[in-house]
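Our working data are protein records whose layout never changes between entries. Getting from the letters to the tokens is the skill we practise here. To make this concrete, we reproduce a full record directly below:
***
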Amino acid sequence: MHDTAEQLTAFALNCSLRQSDSDSPSSTDKMIGDLMSALNAHGVTGEVERVLDHNVKPGVLSNMGEGDDWPTLRERLLAADIFILGTPIWLGHPSSVARRVLERLDAFLSETDDRGRMPAAGKVALVAVVGNEDGAHTCHANCFQALNDVGFTIPANAGVYWVGEAMQGTNYIDLDSVPDGVQSALANAASNAAHLARLLKRQDYPGVPQG
């Protein structure tokens, strides 16, 4: 049972190569939605934004100047207890949109407080991956390494994914039902993330005095 007196929030970024007004549905959206549903069972409420619906400029600063929508997304990300990065696989790697998000998060490295903690200290991260080719584990490895570098905490079994048969046209969103293995992975990731986020919300990392 989750502690209903201590609500948690999640914020997800869908790094699809399509905007939300595209005629094509997003398997990444469905994977994120299924993960959000699993988190709901643990008292976690969440929001999802598709990155390409916003003007996220290239760069490694938290604000790249006029017209940059990243500062608003960054604020919402940091207001949540759990961050979900959702990405399709392209050419065996995370999408270029996901890589841009990680590049923007690089700014956290130089935004430490007086105890050396980055803005993501105490925040939990999950990564959701979908595709029709090999590469899910590579995507997880790349994304988790970057997220850990910029201060996020990675719970056990934090990577969820579905990979269809190579060179075929079935996408995650086309499945009649979610496979048992994926359901189990979603449930475990949600449970572990909610548990860890609650622990960190009660007692964040102490950091180390600087100077």
Q: What stands out?
A: The mean pLDDT is 95. Residues 8-202 form a domain with the Rossmann fold fold (CATH 3.40.50.360). Strands lie at 8-14, 44-50, 82-90, 93-94, 124-131, 159-163.
